[in-house]
Design goal:
By secondary structure, this protein is an alpha+beta fold. It has helices at residues 33-41, 67-78, 94-117, 122-132; strands spanning 14-19, 22-27, 48-50, 85-86, 158-166, 169-176, 179-188, 191-201, 204-207. Strands 4-5-6-7-8-9 form a six-stranded antiparallel β-sheet. Strands 2-1-3 form a three-stranded antiparallel β-sheet. Residues 1-34 have low confidence and may be disordered.
């Protein structure tokens, strides 16, 4: 009803989510449960932008959703396209996983060194990409454009699943909170290489570089 407030003390009757210029009303109740259920019910919609107005916390006191509810929604729309999901402990994934984690470690080490010195070694990052990345880097992406994050970009990434494309191609999925990434690992001349890198935004995957 008009004038009522939810558990966050917010008085609007609806949470609005924009879809291609339109608005969908998601009603809430005093516990916020129906809003979370509404999100999951429309998680298949691409380009859905959710506006909560507040950051989620563990108990759901700072916004319409708890961290777990928002994570469940992001998981649902991120992984909806997976067809041949396989566990990370599958024997066929061990070599691709090792190759990807080796790249993550190499990039983290390079970034930490760059942060300490105030500049990054072009020769070192070029050598790392030559060893472990198959595709030609695009202008604006590393290693053409040098950039780094304190502590290393991949420090808090964790792998969650694999997806079989062919016997020599696998997607490896990684998460960083509610940010999602996947890496296409391809067997080239007996060596596993990173053949593509994508991130998921608003339920859609697109190239994002490394």
């Amino acid at each position: 009803m008009e004038g009522e407030k939810n558990h966050a003390g917010i008085s609007p009757k609806y949470l609005y989510a924009g879809i291609s210029g339109r608005r969908l009303p998601l009603q809430w109740n005093e516990t916020g449960g129906s809003a979370a259920e509404g999100l999951l019910a429309i998680s298949w919609r691409d380009k859905l932008q959710v506006s909560d107005g507040d950051m989620q916390d563990e108990e759901g006191l700072a916004g319409l959703f708890t961290e777990a509810e928002r994570k469940a929604y992001e998981d649902a729309r991120t992984y909806k396209i997976m067809k041949n999901r396989i566990s990370l402990d599958s024997p066929e994934l061990q070599a691709p996983i090792h190759a990807l984690l080796e790249f993550f470690d190499g990039m983290n080490q390079w970034e930490r060194m760059a942060d300490q010195k105030g500049y990054g070694s072009q020769a070192d990052i070029d050598a790392l990409f030559a060893r472990q990345v198959s595709w030609t880097p695009r202008p604006g992406w590393r290693p053409i454009h040098l950039s780094w994050r304190r502590g290393g970009t991949y420090t808090d990434y964790h792998l969650v699943a694999g997806e079989r494309v062919t016997k020599s191609k696998f997607w490896l999925y990684a998460e960083q909170g509610i940010f999602y990434y996947r890496y296409l690992m391809r067997l080239i001349d007996g060596k596993w290489m990173i053949d593509n890198a994508q991130c998921c935004r608003e339920g859609r995957w697109s190239f994002c570089g490394l």
